[in-house]
Specification:
By secondary structure, the protein is of the alpha/beta class. It contains five helices and five strands. Helix 1 packs parallel to helix 2.
């Protein structure tokens, strides 16, 4: 089977992006692929979803349900330690998950090792932040 890296760096306000990313990670793992999930930038907020119905995508499921399902898989989870710290999180963010903090060099290593890299981020918001979306 293939090695798949799913990189989510969208904020949870873009619920379709984050729920789709987790849905794809879970589907790949279910098919027997070796899946790594890397949460960076605003994507670190994903692990802070605490209840069902809080963040639900359009046709992409409930974030909390995806996170609960993720706990029962072999998906490796890396969370950007720098992003988490900058957003006020500590080690308690990782509680209950098979997850660890990682630095950017780990993201590079995982992307090089992977057969496929799937990224979920909000393009329009990025353009607006740099002034190109006007």
């Amino acid at each position: 089977m293939s090695k798949v890296l799913v990189h989510i760096h969208s904020d949870v306000e873009f619920k379709n992006k984050v729920t789709l990313g987790l849905m794809v990670a879970l589907a790949a793992e279910k098919k027997g692929h070796d899946v790594t999930l890397f949460l960076a930038a605003d994507g670190v907020h994903v692990l802070n979803c605490k209840s069902a119905g809080e963040i639900v995508g359009q046709g992409t499921g409930d974030l909390h349900e995806h996170l609960e399902n993720l706990k029962n898989t072999n998906v490796t989870i890396f969370v950007s330690g720098m992003s988490a710290k900058a957003r006020g999180y500590d080690e308690s963010l990782l509680d209950g998950y098979k997850a660890e903090f990682a630095m950017p060099d780990r993201l590079v290593e995982e992307s090089i090792k992977s057969d496929s890299v799937l990224c979920y981020w909000e393009y329009l918001r990025t353009l607006q932040k740099v002034g190109a979306g006007k």
